[in-house]
Amino acid sequence: MAMIPSKQWVPALLGSCVISGVFWHLTRNSKVFGGETPRTLTKEWEQATDKMMSSMPREGGPNVILNPVKRQNYR
Fold first, then answer.
1. How far is Cα 46 from Cα 38, in angstroms, rounded to an integer?
2. What's the average model confidence in pLDDT over 38-61?
3. 22: Cβ contacts below 8 Å, ≥ 6 apart
4. Helical ranges in 1-75 per DSSP H
5. pLDDT tens sequence across 5-30
6. Known Pfam families for this protein (predicted)?
7. CB neighbour list of residue 73: distance below 8 Å, 6 or more residues apart
8. Given CA atoms 63, 66, 68, 70 in this order, what sign does their dihedral have?
9. How far apart, in Å, do the first and last CA atoms of the chain sit?
């Protein structure tokens, strides 16, 4: 099997790294696809969701605590 000369695969490798770096920058740093926090994710929304989830009845046993670390009373 013959080896592929480096003058063929090095530019292809560098080109693919540049293209992936550009897409990384656009999605992570420039927030092209909208990177802001949605306006619905507020503290009031979180508290209302926690209240709703903790009040859901279970048929097979006691209520399940969805976030046990948050619910414990550490002093």
1. 13
2. 75
3. none
4. 6-24, 43-54, 68-71
5. 989 999 999 999 999 999 988 887 77
6. DUF1138
7. none
8. negative
9. 70
